[in-house]
Amino acid sequence: MADLSPLLPLDFPADAVSLASVRAAVKEVDSQLNGKGLNLLINNAAVNSYATLQSVQPEEMISVFTTNVVGPIQVAKEFLPLLKRAAEEAGKEGLSCSKAAIINMSTKVGSIELCFQVLEIPMYPYRASKAALNMVTRCLAADLKDAGILCTAIHPGWVKTDMGTEKAPLTVECSVQGILSVLAGLSQATTGVFLDWEGKSLPW
User: Fold this and answer.
1) What is the pLDDT of residue 45?
2) Which of 88, 107, 143, 191 keeps 20 to 30 A from 54, CA to CA?
3) What is the model's pTM?
4) Nearest to 157 by CA among 109, 104, 103
5) 3-class DSSP state for residue 134?
6) pLDDT in tens, 8-67
7) Secondary structure in 3-state letters for 12-44
């Protein structure tokens, strides 16, 4: 199990859909790392949409996909040199979050297999975009495995946030603690998988 405690959290505001903003964040993070690599990148930015078949508009589909799919790809691409640097510095075999990793925050409502089980609200743009993000995660895992970079998708649960609303059963603290435990246990065997905040495997 990887020890995440030595990792120094770096949090800089960035607009994931703005290439200039992402590149500025990369530059700032690089300056804070003092020549070292970035071990862990978490793509957490997302927007929701409750659009139904009757109400959905092309502009909304494009907007949601831009934030939820294009954004994470853009962020991963721009931060890749820092992640590769960390993987090379690690000097060890295998994959882990303490070496180099990209974590994409997904959702089980983006699971194609579970669609009929969680169809309370169609949410066409949101669900389709998260299904696409899951494919991006699989592609990243296959593409970056030989570079020593782990890539995994995680469903954080239904959490009490602006997006999740107060109806959600999970607190932010509970979800985060669960996710941290899951991250610490990720390895070569779990790159390219879809897990929930408790570490349970979810179908694509």
Assistant:
1) 87
2) 107
3) 0.90
4) 109
5) helix
6) 666 667 889 999 999 999 999 999 999 999 999 999 989 989 899 999 999 999 999 999
7) CCCCCCCHHHHHHHHHHHHHHHCCCCCCEEEEC
CB 156 within 8 A of CB 91: no
Per the CB < 8 A criterion, the answer to whether 186 and 1 are in contact is no
Residue whose pair of structure tokens reads 């602006």 in the numeric block: 162
- Tokens 């996710």 correspond to 179
Closest by Cα among 73, 82, 90, 103 to 35: 82
Strands, E assignment, 84-149: 101-105
55 class by beta-carbon count within 10 Å (0-12 exposed, 13-18 middle, 19+ buried): exposed
Long-range pairs for 59-68 at CB < 8 Å and ≥24 separation?
60/125, 61/124, 61/125, 61/128, 63/125, 64/125, 64/126, 64/129, 65/125, 65/128, 65/129, 65/132, 66/17, 67/16, 67/17, 67/129, 68/126, 68/129, 68/130, 68/132, 68/133
- Sign of the torsion angle spanned by Cα atoms 105, 110, 116, 119: positive
- In terms of Cα–Cα distance, which of 176, 183, 153 is closest to 39? 183
CB distance 41 to 77 below 8 Å: no
Strands of the sheet with 101-105, listed across from one edge: 40-43, 101-105, 150-155, 194-196
